Amino acid sequence: VTGTLLSLSADTVRIAIDGIPGNAAAYVLDTRRHLEVASETSHSVGRRAFQGMAVGAVGVGVLAALSYQPCHSTSIMGCMFAPGSPLAAGAIGAVGGALGGLVVGAIIGLVSTDVTWVPAPTAGVHVAVTPLPAGHLGLGASISF
């Protein structure tokens, strides 16, 4: 089997196998030098939205409670929608922060991907990255059978 090294980074090797169009595999080399492959990628919109909601609620709620100032308006309905205490200001801020964080978290979940790496079966297959002269790296693979 022959192939082409598409890219090599400190921890990932991408290889295309010759003779099979569109077939490329990415293998991760970790510090223990075993191979892992990307088994699936996913968008975790729900999890990111929940995280954004939690961070927004806590962050904005705390800021609203800390920045509370009582209303001193003398007009007829000047203090109608003003919170009456730091606790009320924090609660209103938490609701607003949760809604904003929900939207931001959902957007982050849509544009980001999570990759699940699983150990690759390497029975009889050995891959090594070897330093070469002039700062280059060589990729060696062997199959035992």
Describe the protein's architecture and organization.
The protein is an alpha+beta fold and 145 residues long. The protein is 33% helix and 32% strand. It has helices at 45-66, 86-111; strands spanning 3-8, 12-17, 24-29, 35-42, 114-119, 125-131, 137-143. It has a five-stranded antiparallel beta sheet, with no helix packed on it. A hairpin with a 5-residue loop joins strand 6 (125-131) and strand 7. Helix 1 (45-66) packs antiparallel against helix 2 (86-111). It starts with a strand and ends with a strand. The mean pLDDT is 80.
Question: How is the secondary structure organized here?
Answer:
Layout: E1 3-8, E2 12-17, E3 24-29, E4 35-42, H1 45-66, H2 86-111, E5 114-119, E6 125-131, E7 137-143
Antiparallel strand pairs: 1-2, 2-3, 3-4, 4-5, 6-7
Helix pairs in contact: 1-2
Summarize the structure in short.
The chain has 145 residues and is an alpha+beta fold. It has helices at residues 45-66, 86-111, and strands at 3-8, 12-17, 24-29, 35-42, 114-119, 125-131, 137-143.
Range of helix content: 25-40%
Major beta-sheet overview: 5 strands, antiparallel
Strand order of the biggest β-sheet: 1-2-3-4-5
- Helical stretch tally: 2
Tally of extended strands? Answer: 7
Q: Which class best fits the helix and strand makeup?
A: alpha+beta
Q: State the low-pLDDT regions, or none.
A: none
The succession of helices and strands, N to C, reads EEEEHHEEE
Note the beta-strand portion. 25-35%
> How far apart, in Å, are the first and last alpha carbons?
14 Å
Instruction: Kindly report the average pLDDT value.
Output: 80
Q: What overall form do the CA principal axes indicate? A: rod-shaped
Query: From the alpha-carbon coordinates, what is the Rg to the nearest angstrom?
Result: 27 Å
